[in-house]
Amino acid sequence: MKKKTTLPIIIGNWKLNGTKNKLNSFFKFIKDKSLKIKKNLTILALPNIYLNYAQELVSKLNINCKISAQNIDIHKQGPYTGETSVNMLSDINIKYTIIGHAERRYYHSENNDIIAKKFILSKQKGIIPILCLGENQLEKDCGKTEEIILSQLNAIASIDKQNKTIFNNSIIAYEPIWSIGSKKSADPDLIQQLHTFIKNYVIKFQNFNIDNFYIIYGGSVNEENVNEFLNKKNVDGCLIGNASLNKKIFNNILVKSNKIDK
Ligand SMILES: O=C[C@H](O)COP(=O)(O)O
After folding, report:
1. Most exposed of 19, 50, 158, 240 (fewest Cβ within 10 Å)?
2. Could you say which residues bind substrate here (predicted)?
């Protein structure tokens, strides 16, 4: 993000889904609809095996959509079978990666320390981290939402205490775990409040020196509710799972979000 990003940021996360055929049909649809995504920063996060293919496809079709990875390994190279490094992403010109998605935290036991290391690694390589954080249902029920967010932010801030610009050139995706894939999106007013909480943390930590730092919401976002979130202050965009898998729905989300002035 060398120059200021144009908001809103709409990120589709295909998770463990997709084929070459699906990608062809998805981007062809977008192209045919002459989608007005010029205004948005639109990103599609794909399984590693499709990154290069998708990158070439959007370039060939001249579509204004960036391609992101969904994860990186904690190492840059070496005997780590099955992993993909930040160096490899950079080698194929990928500029974004999701870090610390709730599904990585849960299914792959990634803790705050691992995620903080990945965050730093991607920043060192000039790859924009899309850092996911958020509380689970139990933590929410116990009133621990802010405490959890704080511990996740502190893990990043404390990995290099001298670096008071660590959150610059990054995207934070606040995703309450209970809302992911549940069709139970969060209350947009609450999201505004929590995004403001996150932003204030970063402003204070960096002593107002914030630049190219964005906070987006994820969790059961669809074409009906997307603008309820985007209309809120300090909501710079959305991270969308299920609804990004359907080209027509994702297209509608992009068209709708383009009408928002941020
Ligand atoms: O990465 C996307 C989020 O996990 C949200 O997924 P969802 O839109 O299917 O709830």
Report:
1. 19
2. 13-15, 181, 220
